[in-house]
Design a protein that fits this description.
18% strand, eight-stranded mixed beta sheet, BirA Bifunctional Protein, domain 2, single chain
């Protein structure tokens, strides 16, 4: 038997430099949300299964990590359901809790549960891990962080405009060289289904269309055929696969396609409003693309749908979201409209890492490392180190009086910028010697005033 240690598939450890890079992303996202007045919240890592199940469609439900009951609750297992091959019923009998699949459904539960403590419209952001029993592959993990921002209690499309501005602020602030913000509207998708006469098959249609980037037109058509869609329907939607031109051009073409659908035209009207407001605010509106096949495969979206793709790197979406007017209604609170976005921090990390876009400073070690020559001199170094820390410098004192070669190797391995020599010889001369690790130069200072002299 192999004794090789490893993490579960779809998860990964993060070394110190990795954590610093991730925190760099988290801070950029949090700062952007805070600048628009969003407030931070946190929810538990697991929820009651009843809270999560049935909110993501059949495909989503299959990807939820269930937590087995423990103790006496194990006796509640419905063995008869297992014998009858009623697997869903059996799973419910042995699992009352599940790891959260995303942050949006738990947020809806949070809003309903704490509605009397919140001020509406309520603007929240949340940065926490989520879990999905998905097949691990490039850019797709079973444990990953989401960074969400939502507004509930307002149906104004200005919220969508604001969230798209936040997306631009975050990704531009992270110096991502190129990205596209794709927009669609669930009302447009409903209109397409209506025009094609398949309103009852809306979910099957949107799930298939949403896979266009992954399996291509032929794959989407094959899936629709396997689900029973007629050739007549396929012929009607065929022009949508080749929809080209600017945002405005696509809008005009879709107005013709959807001229017989009131709900479809309403969706185009909403898209036009959002696009025009962003165009007024930011001349760089060419980042926006109207993608009529965008569905995101989630049942709870009811209006605008948002998805962001990075250029230059083969990766899935790095951000997505949309409006979900009916979500809190699933938990008994009707009439509370919501809209939100979610940044995929792990995917953004992979994109920035592959393009070498993280600041070099994130890989650097302590600014100052005091070498340790003896207990007495190390005590004095501790005093100076605390002074430097009080001035916001990152400082280490080597813990033991090891050989100089070992300490210098540590300094190099840690990427220290400066090394301080203060041993018995320097103490006798009342001097401190600083070595610049980048060019090897050394400078002597008076022990009584070296910090001020060095810092200038």
């Amino acid at each position: 038997m192999s004794n090789k240690l490893n993490t579960p598939k779809g998860t990964r450890d993060h070394l110190p430099v990795d954590v610093r890079k991730r925190e760099y992303i988290f801070k950029a996202i949090a700062k952007a949300f805070q600048s628009y007045g969003y407030q931070p919240i946190e929810t538990p890592s697991f929820e009651l299964s009843s809270t999560l199940m049935g909110k993501y469609g059949d495909e989503g439900d299959r990807l939820i990590f269930r937590i087995l009951n423990s103790g006496e609750k194990v006796k509640k297992a419905d063995v008869q359901a297992l014998q009858n091959d009623e697997l869903a019923k059996f799973a419910n009998s042995i699992s009352e809790k599940a790891l959260r699949y995303d942050l949006t459904v738990p947020f809806a539960r949070f809003v309903v549960q704490h509605q009397n403590d919140l001020c509406f419209p309520f603007k929240r952001y949340q940065i926490q891990p989520v879990w999905r029993a998905d097949r691990p592959q490039h850019g797709r993990y079973q444990e990953f962080y989401q960074c969400d921002g939502d507004v509930v209690g307002s149906d104004s499309l200005r919220n969508e405009v604001e969230l798209i501005r936040i997306i631009k602020q975050v990704l531009s602030g992270l110096n991502l060289p190129g990205f596209t913000i794709k927009l669609n509207n669930r009302k447009v998708l409903s209109g397409i289904a209506e025009v094609c006469g398949v309103e009852q098959e809306l979910i099957a249609l949107t799930v298939a269309l949403d896979k266009l980037d992954k399996i291509g037109k032929e794959g989407v058509v094959d899936e629709l055929v396997s689900k029973g869609f007629s050739q007549e329907v396929l012929d009607k939607i065929d022009p949508l696969f080749g929809l080209e031109g600017s945002f405005e051009t696509r809008l005009e073409k879709l107005k013709v396609f959807l001229r017989g659908s009131e709900i479809g035209l309403k969706g185009l009207e909403e898209l036009s409003f959002v696009h025009s407001k962003l165009q007024d605010f930011d001349a760089n509106h060419e980042l926006l693309e109207l993608d009529v096949t965008l569905a995101r495969g989630l049942n709870y979206y009811t209006g605008i749908i948002i998805e962001v793709k990075a250029h230059e790197v083969e990766m899935g979406s790095i951000c997505g979201g949309g409006r979900y007017d009916d979500l809190t209604g699933l938990f008994g609170l009707k009439g509370l409209s919501g809209v939100g976005i979610s940044f995929g921090a792990d995917r953004i990390y992979d994109v920035l890492n592959s393009l070498n876009l993280f600041p070099a400073s994130l890989s650097e070690g302590p600014e100052v490392l005091f070498l340790n020559f003896s207990e007495s001199t190390a005590d004095q170094c501790d005093v100076w180190a605390n002074v430097l820390r009080s001035r916001d410098h990152i400082v280490e004192v080597y813990p033991s009086a090891s050989k100089l070669q070992k300490q210098m190797k540590y300094a190099n391995d840690r990427g220290a910028k400066w090394v301080v020599f203060y041993g018995d010889e320097e103490a006798a001369k009342q001097q401190v010697v600083l070595k610049n690790m980048s060019d090897g130069t050394q400078t002597s200072y008076s022990a009584g005033s070296w910090i001020n002299e060095w810092l200038g």
